[in-house]
């Protein structure tokens, strides 16, 4: 894990890479994903402006005496990531080190943390001080998973567009609080 940690980037670098890929795509995937980078950057900006760490959650973090690190496997074009990664960054800022590993730069890491056989992101890897994996979380909070299961169970009665809309409304209202809480419970 230390190797992946060392290749991890800061949140600022993550944003810079997303802007670079949006404004100056250097491959077909970046061209194809331009609208997703734009949307992801808008959502991250909104979260950064509106998210405030919850005092009770900060106290819970303090009571756990967690001195490890978080390695987040992510990509800025991902809707789930754009809703949760900025909140996690702000919550743990000044408390625990957090780095981001770009999923598509080396899929060997995400392949160790598959979700139902898929490379779903974001995936948060909770590491101790010696880079041992304590736990992992992702790609979305419990309520987001419930919405996804509702869609998969009845795609005609609960179409994809409705699912995506409901998920984004949930993310906008929740502002990362559920993701933070679920990660706190894993520390």
3D structure, described in words:
The chain is 57% helix and 12% strand. It has 187 residues and is an alpha+beta fold. The protein has a single domain, classed as Glutaredoxin (3-Layer(aba) Sandwich), CATH 3.40.30. A four-stranded mixed sheet has the order 2-1-3-4. The protein is globular. The two termini are 17 Å apart. The model has no long low-confidence stretch (mean pLDDT 96).
Topology:
Layout: H1 2-7, H2 11-23, H3 28-32, H4 34-50, H5 55-64, E1 69-74, H6 79-92, E2 97-102, H7 107-110, E3 123-127, E4 133-137, H8 142-153, H9 160-174, H10 177-186
Parallel strand pairs: 1-2
Antiparallel strand pairs: 1-3, 3-4
Features of the shown structure:
Glutaredoxin; 187 residues; 4 strands; single chain; 12% strand; four-stranded mixed sheet; Thioredoxin-like_sf; 57% helix; Thioredoxin; 10 helices; alpha+beta
Our Rg estimate from Cα atoms comes to 16 Å
Q: Domain count, please report it.
A: 1
Give the full name of the CATH homologous superfamily: Glutaredoxin
Tell me the series of helices and strands, N- to C-terminal: HHHHHEHEHEEHHH
Straight-line distance between termini: 17 Å
What integer is the average pLDDT?
96
Largest sheet entry: 4 strands, mixed
Percent range for helical residues? 55-70%
Return the CATH architecture.
3-Layer(aba) Sandwich
Number of helices: 10
The helix-and-strand class reads alpha+beta
InterPro entries: Thioredoxin-like_sf
Protein name: Thioredoxin
